[in-house]
Structures are given as C-alpha cells and as structure tokens.
Specification:
heterodimer; A: alpha+beta; outer membrane lipoprotein receptor (LolB), chain A; Phosphorylase Kinase, domain 1; 2 domains; twelve-stranded mixed beta sheet; 5 helices; 20 strands; B: mainly alpha; 3 domains; 70% helix; 0% strand
Amino acid sequence: MMRLLLLLLLGTALALPAQPALGQTGGGLPEAAAVLRSMVEAPALIDYEGTKIISVRRSGAQTVTVLEAHKRSGKTRLEFLSPEPIAGRIVIDTGADFWHYEPSLHIVFQGSTLARPVHPRAAAEALASAYHLQLLGTEEVVGRAAFVLWLGARRGEESRTFWVDAATGIPLRIEERRRGEPVYVAYFSRISFSLNLPEALFRFRLPAGARSFSLFPSRDPGISIAQAERQVGFRVRQPSTLPGGLRFQGASVAQYGSLTAAHLRYVDGTQPISVFQVPARRVVTGGQLEPGEEIVTGGVRMRMVDLGYFRMLSWEERGLHIAIVSSQQAAPLLALARQFIGR
Amino acid sequence: MHPQVEGQLSAYLDRELPPEQEAAVRRHVAGCPSCQEELSRLTRLKRLLSALPQRAAPDLWPPIRRALAEGQVRRPAWWTVWRERPAVAFAAAAAVVLLLLLPLVRGQIDRLRAAEFGADLFVREHAISAADDPLLDRAYLGLLVTDANLAIVGARPREAPAPR
C-alpha cells in the first residue's frame, strides 16, 4: 500500500511541470524581480519543445526558423528549418559536449557545451543591479498567459523585453532593442511542455563518412593575464582604467591554426565584452569582414564593424592587433578601447 | 669436326681433363682427321705463345700510396660544378632558394588565412563566453556558434538568393 502511494506521488510529481514560485504584489501581479528569477531558474526545472522564429538585424533582416527542444539539465537540441542555406543543420548540446552537423556539407563539429550552471538567486541579483526592471502587465502568447518583463540597462540605451510564460517561467517571446530600435526578436509559434522528451533526442550519432572537426574553445578558461601571457608568448595589453561598471572577469587563450590570441573578458552585469589581442604580424589587416565604419580616437584609426547582433571594434597599435567584440552599443566599446591606447 | 670434342681439345692439350674424359678424347682424335687437324693447330698456337718474351706487369700502387701520403691527390673545387654539371648546380641552387623562401611564403599564407577566419574565431569565442549570460537565447547562440564553426574551417554555407 505504502509503495503504491509513493508511486502515485512520484507519478504526479513527474506529470506536473515544476512551477517557480512568484512573489505576488497586492494588485495580483507578481514582482518584476520574482518574474526575472523564475525565468532564470526555469531551464533547470522545465522541459519543452517548440518551433521558434528568430528575426535578427544582419545587413538587412534575417529570419530563422528552428525546432528547439530542451531537457533538464542543460540538454538542448536545435534543428534549423530555414533559411535555405542552413536548413537541416542540427545542434545537440548534451550538457557535456556540443555537436553540430551540417548536412549539406556532411561536416560534424564537436566542441564544449554551452550549458552553464546557473545560481538563480545570484544571477537574478546581478541582472537586477545592471538593469531597471519593470513588469508591464500580462499578454497572451501562443495561447498562454505571459508576464511582460522589461529590462532597461542602467548604463547605455539597451533594453530587453521578455514575455515570460506565467506557468513555467520560459520566455515565449524576446525582444532586444538598442536606442529603441529592435535588433533581435525571437518567439515561439508553438510550444509544448512536459512531453517526457526521450534521452535519445539529445544524443549525437556521428553520420557515416562525415568529416569531423574538433573546435573546443579556449584552453583553461578563467586564467590570469600573467598566465595568458605565458601561453601566448607576448605582452598582453591591459586597460589603464575600466570604464564605469565594467570589471575584469578572466582571461583565456583562443587558438586555431596558426592564430593564437589572448582573450580578456569584461562584464558589467549586462552583455559581456571580449577583447582579443594577437601580434599584428600574424594577421593581414583589412582582409576580414566588411570595411565597417572608420573611427579615429586618441590618434588611432579603428574600424567598427556591425555584425548584426555583435559589433567588432578593431585596430592595430604598436605591433598588436586588438579586437573588441560585444553585443553592447558602440559607446561602451569605444570607451574601453580608449583605455588600451598607448598601453 | 665434332663440337662436343672441339670444346674439350684445349683442355685436353693442357692436361686439364679428368682421366676418363682425356681417354675418350684421345680415342676420338685417333680416329677423326678433322679433330687431329684442330689439335695440331692448337698445339702450334700454344708453342708460339710460349715462345713470346715475358715482361712483369708494372706495380701501380706505390706511386698512388705516395701521392696520397703527400696530399697530392686533389679533388676538383666545388665551384667548378657550374662548369662541369650546370643542370645539377642550378637545381641545387633553386632548392636552396626555395628552402630560404619557404618560411616567408608560409608566413604570408598563415597571415592571409588568419585574416579569413580571425574575426570568426573571435566571434565564436565571444559567443561561447556570452553563454554565461542567462538571458541570452540559446537557439540564437547555437546559430552564431555554428555559423562561426563553418567560417573558421572555410566552409561558409551558401547564401540564400535575394527575394525579388
């Protein structure tokens, strides 16, 4: 009898989606911070599968359709449906490894997982300190009630709006704007929860005869600048001071082929900023990407290239090629770049 | 003449045959006029040769040894190869020049290649580090990383035709 009761309890627990607790305000709406926290911790509690439409500004607009499946904890499967050049692309993140299969080229890439352990309370607090939070109300998205949560960067003019599923905490729609202009919109056109997604969906089997590449990211992420210098074999420049709100998160070494670059990471609670440094003799200047916008600051000629979601600011100074990459606006990137000049 | 016996007449004359073969040749020659005639010719020839005066062969080794000891044996100077074997000399010179230029050419190729994938490597590394942002859409992150994967190995996907 006792075993039957335990089985019933277990079955009920598995059948119901876990629901993050939301602090209720007097007017019936939860607090914005509570919705933010439910959204941050939802991936660790909820499984889902749906069709997502992504629109991103990239030398004109690009719309991408992808089947997205997520399983606790840290497992993701993406199958891209459109546009044509990426149709059929499969991504499987097992929580330990990241696999990418490109069927049109019959190529497989293996790398490190993109899943990160999240400490919801600390992450929500860090976000709340970097953004103004505001709960704008509720709306219906794909037939589900959603809280509309607005985050406006305390520094800069970047904002993010999330339509957070009231029952699960999963964002059903995301919008990112810079100076009021939308740069990124993603939404589910359909979504299902608690499907008991099979483990096999998140396993990768190497297709027969496929060419395989290992592209693991930087060695030893989170090392000190001195350690990075020893690995890259040149003096790594550091900023004289850090512009307001930025702090150094860690260094690593990015390497592929003959190119070895020092990678310094800076964070301010919003989107991170990466600074890459490589001896100029190792890179032909002007050979990469579009020409971009030329900017002269502190007597140094730089190029700002808009990659759509990301921006890259690059220049050469005293034998070093430096590139700053971030999805932040141009101003914070330039402010950081000035601190590297003459160092 | 009998070919088999003819081949043995010289050895018969020099007493080099085994006894039973020598007896067989003797019996045959006794009853064969042509072999008798050939044997007589060989006998005369042998007599003529033995009548020639004998001279000792000159000993060549002592002067060579002496020359070696005195360092008189000289090899041709290496630069004379230009005159004696110009094709070999030219090939060797070309190989040396190629070896000297190889690092420079390879360095330039590396720089061009680095320029091709450098920006994509930076974007990929940044996208991976941006995974720390809990609000970043994982689907878009996957798209960014996979696009960069292809660009880094020089296999960009085909661009979709522009809508009309």
